[in-house]
Amino acid sequence: MQTLWDYRYAQRTQRMKGSAIRELLKFSERKDIISFAGGMPAPEIFPIGEFREACDKALREHGADCLQYGSTDGYLPLREMIAHQSTRYGINVTAENILPTSGSQQALDLIGRIFINPGDRILVESPTYLGAIQAWNAYGAEFIPVPFDQDGMDTKKLEDSLRAGIKFIYVLPNFQNPTGVTLSYERRLHLIELADNYGVPIIEDDPYGQLRYEGEHLPAVVVLDSQTRSQETCYSGNVIYLSTFSKTLAPGIRLAWVIAPTEVIQKLILAKQGADLHTSTFNQISTYEVAKGGFLNEHVKLIRKVYRERRDVMLDTLEEHMPPCIKWTHPKGGLFLWATLPTNLDAKVIFNEALEKNVAFVPGAAFFAEGGGHNTMRLNFSNAKPEMINEGIGILAKVIKNHV
Amino acid sequence: MQTLWDYRYAQRTQRMKGSAIRELLKFSERKDIISFAGGMPAPEIFPIGEFREACDKALREHGADCLQYGSTDGYLPLREMIAHQSTRYGINVTAENILPTSGSQQALDLIGRIFINPGDRILVESPTYLGAIQAWNAYGAEFIPVPFDQDGMDTKKLEDSLRAGIKFIYVLPNFQNPTGVTLSYERRLHLIELADNYGVPIIEDDPYGQLRYEGEHLPAVVVLDSQTRSQETCYSGNVIYLSTFSKTLAPGIRLAWVIAPTEVIQKLILAKQGADLHTSTFNQISTYEVAKGGFLNEHVKLIRKVYRERRDVMLDTLEEHMPPCIKWTHPKGGLFLWATLPTNLDAKVIFNEALEKNVAFVPGAAFFAEGGGHNTMRLNFSNAKPEMINEGIGILAKVIKNHV
Fold this sequence. Notes:
The structure is a homodimer.
Chain A: H1 11-15, H2 20-28, E1 34-35, H3 48-67, H4 76-88, E2 98-101, H5 103-115, E3 121-125, H6 130-137, E4 142-146, E5 148-149, E6 152-153, H7 159-162, E7 168-171, H8 185-198, E8 202-205, H9 221-229, E9 239-244, E10 256-259, H10 262-276, H11 281-291, H12 295-321, E11 327-328, E12 336-340, H13 347-356, E13 359-360, E14 362-363, E15 376-380, H14 386-401
Parallel strand pairs in A: 1-13, 3-4, 3-7, 7-8, 8-9
Antiparallel strand pairs in A: 2-10, 5-6, 9-10, 11-12, 12-15, 14-15
Helix pairs in contact in A: 3-11, 5-6, 5-10, 12-14
């Protein structure tokens, strides 16, 4: 249908691209598909009973507050709980440093909105999280990719890019989406040192930090940055830290948070007023009721147990079935691993053939801000049950073997 | 605290202003205040019991779907219900024309994102809804105000502005926020005729349309526009229509919708992917459970009864207490009325003095996109109980009498 709107789109609308992942989620909804595509948690262990109780309690005890307009800055007990939890991990902040957002995607959008002028250069891992590219594309960002290996962003190759005039560095240090790779301790220190030398601030995106299945917890970049600056390790403010309840409780509730200097929080609040007024009061109160009193920590232990098993099944089945020319990462946590095909193979060809046999994954090219990665694939291991992982990887291996 | 972020804000951040209303909501939260400030529904009649049942049912029957990631385009049964309701009011659309958003504020933001280039001119009523100004300021819009009287936007004065190259017209035809004024039937037709002559599309924002307390329902602009174009009155697509559950069920749930041509809906979905991935699945499913099967229509009757009484009390008390030099509108629906002081009086002065006596309202200047209105005030009558309205208006009248 032709309408008067057809010729009225803004320039930025031309830059908007659909997320390959969102498109693929449609396949994931088909019951006959074994999906390694989305980044979806295991539905079997959602705390449904706890949410039922919490919603009922929230509406019984705070009914009108749940349903009324709330303030943009968010529900104070929730912010205090997040501050308290963060302090346990060495991020010494108060509720004034915390803004609840409608998922981490909104945090990325609001950050883009207050910081990015068209043409601004953002330093990103290559590959990096697709949602960040999508959010910041709308503000006209340019992405400067930094090479990446099994220890994360290669900080030795960072310095040249830092001289190019960078607005900020975007890093996912723990079990990165899409690769599952963790930034090593030494590189975290090196990253902080270089960022400090060049006066460039950092966005640390950490949705999976609590989902570690082996090895020692590494301090967050925001913690190390603060430690290098003061003996009291008070929050330095040069690293903005993002996390979420999507992977530890439930993504459907759309609740995440930003940790930032109070001045930045105030600007983010202004931006959020214009974007959606505030995040649902009901969701904030009921999620607080679910998370408080130790449940969140207990539940994360269950998630770790379930996802560790699924990761192990996927690693074992890959080892068993894949031809030797296929390589993959061995993530120590998170939701994803990353496989690399021989360079003469296109992951999209494999994708189409696998889909015919009812197996889905995400071709890796989408995660490269500036192109490349045609022979890579992201495999999610959190969503499918072990027997399905076993079957799905078997099918995938057969499809690949036809080509190598 | 000084941080590396201080000098890194985008140009658009300079244009972001806090909403006077959001600031005033802080006063509204004080229990000792009689507030005519926010646009808050009456909490006494929130359907808390219905939400308790619906949330429980949603989690019991769709638990994992409520808590899992959902598609950006929204929960299909909800979209079908909205399409069905819209068709009853003459807006002949299907679920493909509907996008659920995280409140109408997000709808305004997404519209700005896909349509507004910096410097684009938007034609607005003067005064107009503050949230639209706030949302579109972020995209660099310029606002062309059209004079306004007791019949709404003065369409006789529209033509000159339409020649100035307008991206779209923004209109709130029913019980407008902030004035409570309704666009007359004749002017609706005139608006459509002129917009068609100049090929300029319209955004119709209609949060209060169902809350009419007297007089006959007037067809929406979108309906009249479609009628003038086809005998079958199928949706013409030149008017994008916004509405919300915030005023008929509960604002804390953050659920509203856009009706637009499918091509525009597809662009809005792309923009929403980058903004917040999707609106909470849980809120969509539970709101659908509350609204379906006729409850929404019954509940709206209760709201009309309660708000009509409050409006009448406010009109009566104004009549009784205010000096004759004060004028105010007589809204036939909605949540607000609009008072005008003598031009030598500043509503901000009255605001400060009234606040000392624990009465709050919104000084009207905030609603003028391009300045003016220093002697106007917006009075909300939905939130305070009748006896409080009586007392509050009495206090306000005393404060004003000291100045006239």
